[in-house]
Here is the input.
Amino acid sequence: MRDVALAAGVSAITVSRVITSPDRVAPDTRKRVERAIRSLRYVPNLAAGTLASSRSRIVAVIVPNMSNSVFAETLQGLSDILRKADYHLLIGNSGYSLGEEQSLVTTFLARRPDGIVLTGYTHTQRTVQMLRAARIPVVEMWNLSERPLDTMVGFSNFEAARAMTRHLGDKGYRRIGYIGGLTHDNDRTLQREAGYREALRELGHRLAPRLMLAVPFEYEAGADAIVELLRRDPSVDAVFAAGDVLAVGVLLECIRRGWPVPRRLAVAGFDDARISSRIVPPLTTVAVPRYEIGCTAAQNILDRLGGLPARPRVLDLGFRIVERGST
Amino acid sequence: MRDVALAAGVSAITVSRVITSPDRVAPDTRKRVERAIRSLRYVPNLAAGTLASSRSRIVAVIVPNMSNSVFAETLQGLSDILRKADYHLLIGNSGYSLGEEQSLVTTFLARRPDGIVLTGYTHTQRTVQMLRAARIPVVEMWNLSERPLDTMVGFSNFEAARAMTRHLGDKGYRRIGYIGGLTHDNDRTLQREAGYREALRELGHRLAPRLMLAVPFEYEAGADAIVELLRRDPSVDAVFAAGDVLAVGVLLECIRRGWPVPRRLAVAGFDDARISSRIVPPLTTVAVPRYEIGCTAAQNILDRLGGLPARPRVLDLGFRIVERGST
DNA sequence: CAGATTCATGTTACCGGTAACATCCGGCCC
DNA sequence: GGGCCGGATGTTACCGGTAACATGAATCTG
Here is the structure.
């Protein structure tokens, strides 16, 4: 930067201003500096900038999983908004483990991110402590909570699962099974399961633990689960899989075994994955604002860094029951 | 750090050593320092460390797309290896645009990453210049090239497409259509298309441009493409879709329209996506080492940063034709 | 046992920017 | 014309670590 300053006949701070706040420099000075930057191929050093200004222009985000394209679209939303504002995204993968989340938070905080985005509201005590101490905007996403750490952006997994289960009940299905993700450390799946239970109660169905399975979010696990479920109770006439990966796995297994859907078995999913509307029969599912969650989380952080008044602490982006041929 | 040093009765550099190279500190001194770190809840500032040591412990990676789970698994591989070595991953999304790639490289280099990973061998001239000037390990992935920028990790898209097309020809299919991704700025799809052409030539089939379509990697685009292809020439008896997203789109459209696969139309894909083995009929496809590409790229960068001798410049991880029910 | 070597730790300067305040200059107002 | 004001630019002192070299004590070696 000193070299550039020398070449342009100005001081270093003027070069700094040309880069970070061009409006505060006279037009022709600015041009001279910009020419010097180009001709010297100057690449600023953000580490130095971060150290001096204590703003890193980094937002850290932790998702449980990135192969599952569900979160990929949320990341896309975050990235789309943040890139426009010249922020970079530090992405971490917790593998659905709170311990791993804590470990990621620890190392991420050493980079002094300007904001941090987590999935869900369940965290270790130590994680919460560290985030509080960091004094930066924190957004939790993909669920709603009464007492968010800071800001929460998502939808009610409980209400969504309840609505879908009731929908199945209202359509006349009498014996509705449930295949959910693993609930350990996972408030989203926990709430979905609770929503299912609540709806069954409201419908006056009997709650049968043997009609409920918790498995990892994989096509294969869904396929295996439905076989197990029907083995346990052949009278099951509908299944709610709390993730489209599971539901598609179920659907494909039904096709493979020649069980007509929805005549023998109705199948409902959760997420509205890309494939769900294309598969045959198309999948009834809960559409959730995956991409919007990312955009909103990013915008919320940017707004707060820009000093804008804090928005409401819980942003409910809602969900939508999408009825298709599988039920 | 000075506070910690004071509390532990040592100098700042000793605290620094406890953090970055614990072996170089006597055990009981180390324990004292570690206790002080914990009790003061000290979080080191990596921006300062980066500035002082000119090592950022960041690897930047640019993929064309992250919703498509194909690259997600490569990112997972990178992340798995780098995390163990205490490196962070800065992820950018070029949206299959070289201009966007250049813009990402520009901003990433300002963070002084210790290494950078790109997809494919096609880049703007300016991008190449900047990468050369940065003097850091560069890995290009997902293809092979005679003259990589530095190191290349992937497989031959040309040979893979050629092998699959020949496989279809050898099985007796007489009129093989091709649905590929958009080739603009994309050497992987370009090479796949070239492989298809080459194989047709070898098989003695007539090359018909009207049997070739280039569309975005979306289920829907695959579905639309197959309809268009069969409209153009109903004698088509097989189609090679150079991406499983497209192939699955084709397959589902055939099911929807009641065209038996493979009897009316054989379908082959590329990537071996998770769903491809589960769908009915299961999809014949080219299995590529997605996850391994990420691991190898990461390990290559780590090795070189560790001063290990440079490995061969082009690492061919190969591919595998997986024959399933769809052909 | 002197000198060399090794190990543990400390001193000093510097990495490359930016905040905060200082300075300078031209225009405006009364 | 003098004082004031605001915009453009400069000076200085850091931000929080680490490289490089220095120091001192313990251990080794012939």
User: Anything to note?
Assistant: The mean pLDDT of chain B is 95.
